[in-house]
Structures are given as C-alpha cells and as structure tokens.
Amino acid sequence: MISINIEKKLKAYQGQQVLKVNHQFAAGSVTKIYGPSGSGKTTFLKVIAGLTIPEKGRIVAAGTTWFDAGTKINIPTQQRNIGFVFQQYALFPNMTVRQHLEYATTDELWVKRLLVLGKLDTLETHKPEYLSGGQQQRLAILRALATKPKLLLMDEPFSALDPKMKTELIAGLKIVLKQLGTTTIIVSHNPQELDGWAADELVFE
Amino acid sequence: MDLSPIWLTLKLAGITTAMLIVIGVPFAWWLSRGKTFFKIIIEAIITMPLVLPPSVLGFYLLLAFSPQHGIGKWLHDSFDVQFVFSFQGLVLASVIYSMPFMVGPVKSALQQLPASLAEASYTLGKSPWQTFKSVLLPNIKPSLLTAIVLTFAHTLGEFGVVLMIGGNIPGVTRVASIAVYDSVEKMDYASANNYSLILFSITFVLVISVFVFNKYQAKSPLG
C-alpha cells in the first residue's frame, strides 16, 4: 500500500494554488486521476516519483518512508523502484527501441516480451525520430515497465494510440501488471478509456 | 622554413583541447545543474578570458607563477615546476584562456535538453553520472564537436597570453602566431607569410568542417 498525504504549491499564471492530496493506494490497484488542466495531476505524479519535492507531508510505500517533510527524509528517485511514462514521452534520441529497454534492464527475455507487448518487435533497431507518435508512446510505456516497477506512474499514456491499439495494449498491460503486482496510477483526460480497468479514481479540481 | 613553431602550436592546441575535454565538459555539466550565486561567480570568472585583453591575463599569470615569489616560488622549490617561459606554462595559460570556448557551448546545449530526459533516466534507477554519460552527452554531440573544434582553433590563434607568459623561445614557447610577429619584426616577410598561410588554412578547414558536420547531422525529434 502507498499512503500519500502531501501539500505542494503549484505555479500558476493567476495567483498561487496549493495541491493537497491525501489518499491511500492499495497494493496492486489501478487508479485513474482526472481533472482540469493545471490542477496538478502531472505535479502529483512527479511528487510520488521524487522528481519534485512537496512543501509538506509524507509518502509511505509498503512500510518504507519515501518522503517526510518533518524529518527531512527524501529517498532518491533511483531507489523508489517506479516506472514513469512522461506525457511528452522523454525518449532518448540517441538510443534505438531495443537500447531503450536494455538501458533499463539486462533481462533479455523480459525485453523480448515487452517488445511483443508493445508491437515494437519489428522496429527494435529504430531510433525515436523514425517512429510514429503512437509507436513512440508505446516505447515510453515499455521503457517504464523494463525495470519491473512496483509502482507505475503514467501521464496521459494512451493519448496518441488509435482505439484498436489502445484496447489491445491495455489488455496486455493488465496481464503484465497483475503478474508484477504493480500498483498503477494513470493520469487521463479521457477517463472513460479506463472504464473496466481502473477500479479506483481520484478527481483533481 | 623552420616548421617547429607549427608543430609546437599543434601540440599545444592538442594538449589544451584534450585537457579541456576532461576538465571542461564535466565542469559544464556541473554549471548546467541548477543556478546558485556561487555558480554564477564561478561562471563569470571562467568567462572573463573572453572579454579581458589577453595581455592582462598573461600579466596576472606571469605574476602568479613567477619563481621569485608566491605560488610560483612554492611550485619551483617543492616540485621543480616552472610555469613561466616554459611549455607547461603555455598549456596552463591556454587551458584558462580557452576554457570558455569549451564550457560555454556544452553548458548551453545541456541546458537546452528537456529536463524530462534526465528524469526518465533517474526513474530507471540510473545515477546522475550514468545519465550524463549515456543520455545527456550523446544527445549534445554537435555542440560538443563544435566546442572541441573551436577550443582547438582558438588555442591555435592565441598570441597575447602566450607572449606574456612564454616569451619567444625557439622550440619551447615560440608558437606559430609568435613566429609571425617575430618574422615581421626581422623584416622576414616570406616566413611570416608562410606561417600565416598555414595558420589560416588549418583554421579555415576546421571551421568549415564544423559547419558541414552540423548541417548534415540528422535532426533529432527534440528539434
């Protein structure tokens, strides 16, 4: 279980807004987060990942304190064993599809399985600039899974996929995430796409 | 014609560039990570050689490393190292003088990479150093190459600093730019012309090759 209770100031054009979240995510659960632009969804994911530091609060994952503003505990991102799918993908322009995954893991069988899952097995020697938007997005998802994370944070992960590809990928992801026992948090502008999968939800205002 | 000034110049530029790759690139990386007042001061200091008259820089180095007093005396007495009127002195001066040409372009290129590239690497469990080596550095190749070539070319062309700290000792500190000046003083225009033409050709080819390389470099999706 991941228990989060944080406060983080958001930079906004008009005045200052404070993001306050107090929520428990059950182990292995899938949660969707939605709400208007600028409500702090991406910031929230980055706080959990340790890429942004909140002003107040605590984050405790499976009994380990990741962050505590009071006692100044802040476990680095590298040690949190998370997967992160960035909204803009953040792929590495110098690496091929396969190299993206091999950078993250040495498990060859796992790499092969992921490539098949994302239907990128025929494109493994391509660099991101030679991939379509949808292929780039799938690669971003596969890379986030490469380390077999205990917590997967995804920021608009299906926005560039056509409906058929989306359905197939989600079906594949369900199986993989269940096997890994990964807790999943998904930010989406289109929460209906996660109906029947994400059992839990969190609405930002 | 005595070619030793040309070889000396190439040797000086080669050693200086190699040292600046080792020192300047990690330094640029450090400067690119967050801005503190301390970093601004350090950056200003290493940028000074761009705007300072080379003779001023040379003069300060001459004072600092004079074997009669201060650091220079200590270096001379303890390690038998002399930076004034010696080749190692030229290397030291060139490293300081050409530092902004290596650090500047590399630093701005690193800052222009989206922050999410490094962040993505951190989420994969990679340390900042691994991230720098495997993700950041390979994605600023054109800027890195430009910095390396400009550093080399700039060192070929230095004059004032070299003259102040190195003087004009044949085979030791008489680099090509000094040889041009020396030849003209002796009314030996033929030699001056040869040295000048060689320097001009080398630098021209270097600058052209940077332009050509950067033009044909495949465009990255980062723009």
Describe this structure in words.
- The complex is a heterodimer of chains A (205) and B (223).
- The two termini of chain A are 24 Å apart.
- Chain A has 205 residues and is of the alpha/beta class.
- Chain A has five helices and ten strands; from the N terminus they run E-E-E-H-E-E-E-E-H-H-H-E-H-E-E.
- A five-stranded antiparallel sheet of chain A has the order 2-1-4-5-6, covered by helices on one side.
- Chain A has a single domain, classed as P-loop containing nucleotide triphosphate hydrolases (Rossmann fold).
- In chain A, helix 2 (97-104) runs parallel beside helix 4 (133-146) and helix 3 runs antiparallel to helix 4 (133-146).
- Chain B is mainly alpha-helical and 223 residues long.
- Chain B has one domain (4-113, 146-216): Orthogonal Bundle (MetI-like fold), CATH 1.10.3720.
- Chain B is built from eleven helices and no strands.
- Chain B has helices at 4-32, 37-51, 54-65, 70-79, 87-112, 115-123, 128-136, 141-156, 160-166, 176-185, 189-216.
- Chain B starts with a helix and ends in a 7-residue tail after the last helix.
- Residues 219-223 of chain B have low confidence and may be disordered.
- The chains are: A alpha/beta (205), B mainly alpha (223).
- The interface between A and B is medium-sized, with 27 and 21 residues.
